[in-house]
Amino acid sequence: MTDSQQQAKAILDRLAFIPFEQCLAIDRQFDHLPARPGIYAIRHRTEGVLYLGKTNDLGTRFNGGHKAFTWAWLDLYHPADVGIAIVALERWGNPALLSELEAMLLRATEPPYNVKIPRES
What we know:
The chain is of the alpha+beta class. 39% of the residues lie in helices and 20% in strands. The two termini are 15 Å apart.
């Protein structure tokens, strides 16, 4: 197993297996998300990972670009059944490595709200 694959597995374990009660609540303000880079998963209490992504600022990612689809989910799912699992990173690091990690995670989880899942090279 390569170093990237080991990192991806460790991140996936943290995102997918953290108890749902420890996921961050989704609301319309997102004031509780850290202003740090990270990989995140929108999770449903029983259906698992709905969406997975990476960002250089978790706080602004949801305040900027995710409100529309998050609000749509809130209309379909009970808010208490949807949460955000995050793996915050100290620094953004190598963008190519993070994209590779994200691609591995997407292939492993195949979240229904990720439109395009990168193929393995």
